[in-house]
């Protein structure tokens, strides 16, 4: 356990009735704060969705993690819901007392416990704000990429609970892509760590942190996180382009998505939003009456500078009436402050504001915006659009006054029409704001009968009576006061699941969204041939003799995970066959979703223990004509210094893989080898820039470089055993294993994965016994082609049994 209960007492207020809620809470929260008066609790009755207000029975602010733990341990003594709250900036009615109850404000849990620059991770408490973390990371040359507009004040606890995104998640990804580990206090008061610095399953058989991320406070109370960090970009160019009409802006968006510059952000502000900003103190001279597109590219100086002209030309070719771009940080910051201030400015226009958060395929962008304008104008409801255009994440802002007769009903009708349209065109209800109590009624549009049963089974496993944050995500999640022991155990079975047809995926290739649905047994050569026709590739495939499904099953990581993340970050949907034979849809066909619990990633990491994938919906990437592989040889100190320089620099984002290659198999003359492999897949002119960088660093550290060209990135075979460590420990771990057992090992210097190539099952057992526990204790994981799995504990066995029973897939 990471913290201790304290026996210290604090100053007491006026004498309280021993039966009162406040008195009972003060027996637990002795050093923190307890509030029960309406005046004290006035700011806690809503979040950013201000028109839905619910007065809590009490608000407590624990002094530390120990007091939070003590409160959760005593939760069954309070016949009230428990709602954990961060900064309250969410926009979906999440951290509010929809059924009354006790709001637990985690603002005091603000310790940054550790930053590990070499391992690219940090450990923080749940109340740390994004701004606080960013300020602490600057001196280390690192950053944490998710950047919601409320980043100045929002907490990491709230971000993880909602799986928050932001403007720059188009390339960098959302919160879930950076959560290595979660510490949570469950409703029974038990404290568990899921994962850790190495970002795996830890000591668990299943990857439970996947369910915790995006769970909206319904499964447990978060206390600590381990987060992945990245080197800060050396240089950034910010572009703004004005378009006279939506179609031209849409054309520019589509071109940018497939551009080899890999923009980090593609944002669109409609003319109403531009006018709002320009008529405020945040004005920055935006062109009036235009659709304004903001896009940004970053990277090493020489590389990103080489891309500026092509991006500017792309915008001009899309009929931009004005294109401005700058690498001046002050200009950039002013533009982004204006973009992010739009929400606050809209909040000043009327009593109420609804910000929707749907995600659509980009092919439906123009039609969807026209629908929004048409429906809002017909209802006389002002609407302003400003959104993340790169991933189709819409944010229509509807401005209204719920006190005026009929306005709330008109808003609700618009939302219903919009959500139905979004689902019909292949989108999803939420991309980063979550469901909260705002979109619960639309969830049956998303999930079929079995899919919905699976979703509800997650809550039945960890929070069966819905005491944690009830009436959120699903409308059936209602807390029944004073439940008996029997009803606690069977409460899930009383929730009838409606009969709804499953919306299974059909095979497709969508070049605009760079996603495709393909069979699980597809072969790399066949997929490459299909995708190349659209100028796309699937870089995580690397064994030409193994199916897509075999790649996913052996490990979450491939060599190209250095640049693009693991399979769980690149598979956005599946058709999944349950043990009963029923096929359900998990995930979406769009690249971003916070609609329900993330069973997709949970099942993907399960090794087919909950069924198997039939079809995968996968993210694709723009393809260049050639790859260039650099082989670095030299002394061990020279190679280690070379790796440290590359992985701590911005160049780490631009090599498909950076691998430490060790072969300790004895040849006839007793030779062994160690070298580095860097693979760059970029346009030809940029490959030359990458080569000059590698040559410079090699010369600096006295190591030798050779290179060769190919039309693909890495050809390797699937490993027999894969260990996941922190990036700074992977190469030394690989060296020890290779030397001890005379094996070939490959270590990913950016990801921390170690691929081990074995001769037989007996050797897999020996390596596992010696090294797997060490990896698990650092929050890592291991997987084997030979079928070995981490032993299951009694606690985990109970969770799995509860889930299977509730989901009816025993």
Explain the overall architecture:
It is a single chain. Helices cover 31% and strands 21% of the residues. It is built from 26 helices and 33 strands. The chain has an 8-stranded antiparallel β-sheet with strand order 29-26-28-27-31-32-30-33. The protein has a 7-stranded antiparallel β-sheet with strand order 15-12-14-13-17-18-16, sandwiched between helices. Helix 12 runs antiparallel to helix 13 and helix 15 runs antiparallel to helix 26 (794-807). Mean pLDDT is 93; it is low at 1-15 and 485-494.
State mean pLDDT (0 to 100 scale).
93
Strand order in space, largest sheet: 29-26-28-27-31-32-30-33
Q: Give the class-level CATH name of the domain at 627-784.
A: Alpha Beta
Please state roughly what percent of the residues sit in beta strands, choosing from under 5%, 5-15%, 15-25%, 25-35%, 35-45% or over 45%. 15-25%
Low-confidence stretches: 1-15, 485-494
Q: What would you report as the Rg, rounded to the nearest angstrom?
A: 26 Å
CATH superfamily label of the domain at 627-784: FAD-linked oxidases, C-terminal domain
Helix share of residues? 25-40%
Largest β-sheet summary:
8 strands, antiparallel
- Which structural class should the secondary elements be placed in? alpha+beta
Seen as an oligomer or otherwise, the chain set is single chain
CATH architecture verdict of the domain at 627-784: 3-Layer(aba) Sandwich
What is CATH's topology name of the domain at 627-784?
Answer: Vanillyl-alcohol Oxidase, Chain A, domain 3
- Continuous helix count: 26
Total beta-strand segments: 33
State the end-to-end CA separation.
Answer: 33 Å
In one word, what is the shape? globular
């Amino acid at each position: 356990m990471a913290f201790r209960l304290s026996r210290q007492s604090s100053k007491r207020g006026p004498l309280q009735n021993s039966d009162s809620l406040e008195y009972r809470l003060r027996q637990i929260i002795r050093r923190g704060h307890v509030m029960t008066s309406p005046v004290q609790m006035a700011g806690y009755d809503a979040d950013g969705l201000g028109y839905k207000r619910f007065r809590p029975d009490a608000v407590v602010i624990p002094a530390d993690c120990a007091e939070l733990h003590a409160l959760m341990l005593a939760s069954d003594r309070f016949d009230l819901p428990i709602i954990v709250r961060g900064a309250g900036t969410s926009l979906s009615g999440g951290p509010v007392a929809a059924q009354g109850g006790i709001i637990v404000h985690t603002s005091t849990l603000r310790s940054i416990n550790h930053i590990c620059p070499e391992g690219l991770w940090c450990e923080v408490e749940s109340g740390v704000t994004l701004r606080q973390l960013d300020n602490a990371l600057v001196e280390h040359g690192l950053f944490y990429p998710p950047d919601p507009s409320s980043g100045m004040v929002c907490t990491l606890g709230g971000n993880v609970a909602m799986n928050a995104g932001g403007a720059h998640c188009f390339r960098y990804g959302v919160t879930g892509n950076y959560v290595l580990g979660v510490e949570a206090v469950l409703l029974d008061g038990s404290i568990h760590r899921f994962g850790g610095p190495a970002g795996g399953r830890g000591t668990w058989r299943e990857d439970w942190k996947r369910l915790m991320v995006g769970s909206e406070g319904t499964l447990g109370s978060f206390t600590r996180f381990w987060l992945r960090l990245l080197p800060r970009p050396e240089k950034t160019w910010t572009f703004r382009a004005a378009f006279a009409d939506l179609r031209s802006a849409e054309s520019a968006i589509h071109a940018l998505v497939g551009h080899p510059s890999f923009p980090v952000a593609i944002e669109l502000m409609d003319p109403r939003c531009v006018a709002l900003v320009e008529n405020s103190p945040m004005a920055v001279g935006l062109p009036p009456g235009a659709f304004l597109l903001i896009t940004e590219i970053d990277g090493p100086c020489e590389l990103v500078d080489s891309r500026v002209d092509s991006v500017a030309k792309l915008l001009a070719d899309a009929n931009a009436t004005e294109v401005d771009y700058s690498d001046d940080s002050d200009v950039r910051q002013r533009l982004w402050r204006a973009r992010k201030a739009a929400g606050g400015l809209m909040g000043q226009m009327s009593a109420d504001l609804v910000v929707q958060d749907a995600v659509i395929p980009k092919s439906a962008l123009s039609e969807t915006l026209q629908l929004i304008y048409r429906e809002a104008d017909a209802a006389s409801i002002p609407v302003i659009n400003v959104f993340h255009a790169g991933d189709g994440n819409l944010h229509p802002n509807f401005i209204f006054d719920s006190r005026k007769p009929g306005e709330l009903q008109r808003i609700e009708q618009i939302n219903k029409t919009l959500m139905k349209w979004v689902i019909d065109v292949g989108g999803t209800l939420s991309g980063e704001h979550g469901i909260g109590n705002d979109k619960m009624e639309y969830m049956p549009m998303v999930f079929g009968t079995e899919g919905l049963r699976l979703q509800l089974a997650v809550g039945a496993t960890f929070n069966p009576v819905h005491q944690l944050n009830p009436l959120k995500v699903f409308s059936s999640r209602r807390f029944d006061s004073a439940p008996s022991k029997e009803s606690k155990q069977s409460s899930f079975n009383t929730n009838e699941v409606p009969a709804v047809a499953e919306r299974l995926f059909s095979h497709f290739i969508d070049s605009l969204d760079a996603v495709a649905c393909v069979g699980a047994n597809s072969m790399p050569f066949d997929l490459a041939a299909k995708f190349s026709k659209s100028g796309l590739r699937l870089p995580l495939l690397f064994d030409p003799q193994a199916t897509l499904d075999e790649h996913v099953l052996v490990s979450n990581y491939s060599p190209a995970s250095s640049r693009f993340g693991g399979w769980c970050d690149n598979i956005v949907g599946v058709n999944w066959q349950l043990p009963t034979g029923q096929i359900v849809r998990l995930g979406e066909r769009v690249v971003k979703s916070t609609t329900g619990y993330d069973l997709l990633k949970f099942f993907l990491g399960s090794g087919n223990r909950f069924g198997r994938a039939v079809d995968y919906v996968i993210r694709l990437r723009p393809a260049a004509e050639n790859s260039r592989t650099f082989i670095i040889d030299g002394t061990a100190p020279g190679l280690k210094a070379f790796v440290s320089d590359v992985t701590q620099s911005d160049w780490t984002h631009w090599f498909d893989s950076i691998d430490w290659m060790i072969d300790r198999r004895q040849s006839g003359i007793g030779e062994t080898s160690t070298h580095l492999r860097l693979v760059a897949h970029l346009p030809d002119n940029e490959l030359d820039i990458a080569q000059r960088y590698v040559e410079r660093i090699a010369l600096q550290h006295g190591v030798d470089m050779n290179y060769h060209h190919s039309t693909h990135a890495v050809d390797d075979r699937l490993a027999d055993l894969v260990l996941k460590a922190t990036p700074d420990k992977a190469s030394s771990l690989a060296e020890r294993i290779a030397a001890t057992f005379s094996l070939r090992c490959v270590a990913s210097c950016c990801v921390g994965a170690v691929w081990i190539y074995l001769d037989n099952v007996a050797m897999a057992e020996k390596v596992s016994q010696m090294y797997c526990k060490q990896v698990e204790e650092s929050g890592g994981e291991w997987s084997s082609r030979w079928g070995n799995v981490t032993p299951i504990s009694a606690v985990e066995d109970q969770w799995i049994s509860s889930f299977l029973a509730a989901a009816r897939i025993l």
